[in-house]
Write a structure and sequence with these properties.
This protein is of the alpha+beta class. The termini are close together.
Length: 605
């Protein structure tokens, strides 16, 4: 979440600068804005108003989520009459612009004007140093930029951030710090604004918040449509009932994020604990207060009313009742137990469970786990419905074949998160390796053991049976087969090779389409080259201000154009840089790049 300190003088943002937006728009030959009903609004009518310049793109999932949050804030503030938003679209067509703009109650720069004389680029240069969407630049009534990171502030404070001044954000931050210092179970769960001092039980009874004082309380942030929440709730119920039977002073309060009351009632009806009322304003405020980033989340509040743990959902999933009472001392004990378990970990201890002592090959042929002992194993967590898995799979297959061609003792085991047998069969048919059968009970224990919270995930197990790394996906993405066998020693060798290679290149280069700025050589895990439009990793020449990224090969060739002697030199030098070849500097790939951006805010929170 954004911090108000980003408005300090040492920030890289443009906060505090004063701009005449009317002059800006006039210089771009824009003298009117539009509403989604076609009405035109003169620029002069916005004088004296607070403004938000909103850069967004319908194709971006985060933009779609944030736009709904911004719509709600805008509607709540519309009665004040002194705040307006101007939409500058990053959409690629008039149709997508119209569709996206139809959801917005504010103004927009006409789409056809945005791409005249590079209008959007001029606005980019005017307002921010790096391109990114969604982006909200907030100006006060005098044209002073309050912040160029309005997205984070709207996410964090919503309507409470109005009038979006530095003073207001400072005040909110101070209030938040005070609330944390003086936090009690009452300050968390009661709502003074609505005089609500109770929570509810599943049968509708009101339970005074005072009944929870002195207890350890778990705040369960959940969403009934979230499959992870649906899968986790029975485990939490089991732990809750066991603690209840033992007479422990423990309670859970559901903080539902559901939008529909029917969904809330259906899910809460099967829970033995308490809840905040449906759509209570405290639900969203608590999500912001505890900086919610995923569901399910279980925040633990100690008997003194202070926060003990920010999220114990994974710990409950893995350790059950053993995680109670969720204190730092208890987690230190569990960590020591895990460390001891890892020291004696073997492949059989990971992949064998009772009679389930095999994996399968093509046509369902059973292969004993014992046949894999002594090999390097990659556990590949994936699913057919996962778009990023489709993007990653070709890289893994390519690396697999390259490693196997050298007679290396490697095997991959596919661990499916597919929803049905047909999807599993489609996934597995594309893979040249082994798998756990669909619906295998070992999948859950493996997911817990390796803390799989997203797919694709690739875990490397060494020949000894011990875990080498849980980040093998990133290593394959960055280095392909060169990363094998994924040990720290091997990675140091690979990184040294690339560092040595980069010594031959200049630190900065000129680019013919960007005469004002230079591009700087830097590490990048994965990117699209703006010269050849293919993907690359490890090294790139980048201009942060314009977000231009080039393969080293493309950047150096582009700089050399125009001088015959330089071109001849480049031809000799770049024989070693084969786009699409084994060398990953500026590696060009035809596979599309996943955004790789985790949505850290649920429902605009």
């Amino acid at each position: 979440m954004a911090d108000v300190e980003m408005m300090s003088s040492d920030s890289e943002s443009i906060d505090g600068d004063s701009y005449d937006f009317r002059s800006l728009l006039s210089s771009l030959e824009i003298d009117f804005l539009i509403r989604n009903n076609g009405d035109q609004v003169k620029i002069d009518s916005l004088e004296g108003k607070k403004l938000g310049f909103y850069f967004s793109d319908k194709e971006d999932e985060i933009c779609q989520i944030f736009t709904q949050k911004l719509v709600n804030v805008y509607k709540e503030l519309s009665s004040k009459g002194d705040f307006e938003i101007i939409f500058a679209s990053w959409d690629y067509s008039d149709d997508t612009f119209e569709e996206f703009f139809s959801e917005m109650p504010w103004l927009a720069i006409p789409f056809q004007l945005l791409y005249l004389e590079d209008t959007l680029d001029e606005l980019d240069d005017f307002f921010f140093q790096e391109r990114d969407v969604p982006r909200l630049v907030i100006l006060d009534e005098h044209g002073m930029v309050v912040t160029d990171d309005g997205v984070s502030l709207i996410q964090k404070y919503g309507v409470d951030g109005y009038p979006f001044s530095a003073e207001r954000f400072k005040e909110l931050k101070e209030e938040e710090e005070k609330a944390r210092r003086e936090q009690t179970i009452r300050s968390i769960l009661a709502s003074p604004s609505s005089s609500r001092d109770f929570v509810i039980s599943s049968d509708g009874n009101k339970v005074p918040v005072s009944k929870l004082e002195g207890k350890t309380v778990g705040l369960y942030f959940s969403l009934s449509s979230c499959k992870s929440c649906v899968d986790f709730t029975p485990k939490l119920v089991e732990v809750y009932k066991k603690l209840e039977e033992k007479g422990e002073s423990f309670e859970i309060v559901l903080i539902s994020l559901d939008d529909e009351e029917k969904s809330f009632k259906e899910s809460f009806g099967g829970m033995p604990w308490l809840a905040l009322p449906f759509k209570d304003k405290s639900c969203e405020k608590l999500a912001r207060y505890f900086e919610l980033s995923t569901t399910p989340t279980v925040v633990i509040i100690g008997p003194d009313g202070k926060t003990l743990q920010s999220n114990v959902a994974e710990d409950i999933e893995e350790h059950g009742i053993q995680a109670y009472p969720f204190t730092p001392q208890k987690f230190a004990e569990l960590a020591e137990m895990e460390k001891a378990k890892e020291m004696v970990q073997t492949l059989e201890s990971i992949l064998v469970s009772g009679d389930l002592d095999f994996v399968i090959g093509k046509d369902g042929v059973r292969i004993p786990v014992s046949d894999l002992v002594g090999k390097n194993i990659l556990l590949y967590f994936s699913a057919h419905h996962c778009l990023e898995c489709h993007h990653f799979l070709p890289k893994l297959i390519e690396s697999y074949h390259e490693i196997k061609a050298k007679d290396e003792p490697l095997e991959v085991v596919f661990i499916s998160s597919d929803n049905d047998q047909a999807s599993f069969d489609k996934s597995f048919s594309e893979m040249p390796w082994l798998a756990l059968p669909f619906g295998d009970a070992r999948k859950s224990s493996l997911s817990r053991r390796f803390k799989v919270i997203g797919i694709p995930m690739l875990v490397a197990i060494g020949s000894s049976g011990r875990t080498v790394t849980k980040e093998a996906k990133d290593l394959i993405t960055m280095y392909r087969a060169k990363a094998y066998p994924f040990t720290e020693e091997r990675l140091k060798e690979v990184e040294a090779e690339y560092e040595e290679m980069a010594k031959e290149w200049p630190e900065k280069v000129k680019y013919r389409w960007e005469k004002k700025r230079e591009l700087t050589l830097m590490h990048m895990m994965h990117y699209r080259c703006d010269e050849c439009n293919k993907y690359g990793q490890v090294w790139a020449y980048r201009c942060k201000e314009r977000d231009i990224k080039l393969h080293p090969k493309c950047a150096l060739e582009a700089e050399a154009k125009g001088t015959e002697s330089e071109s001849e030199s480049m031809d000799e030098e770049t024989e070693r840089w084969v786009c699409g070849g084994d060398m990953s500097i500026g590696f060009c790939s035809s596979s599309p790049l996943s955004r790789g951006r985790q949505i850290s805010v649920l429902f605009g929170i």
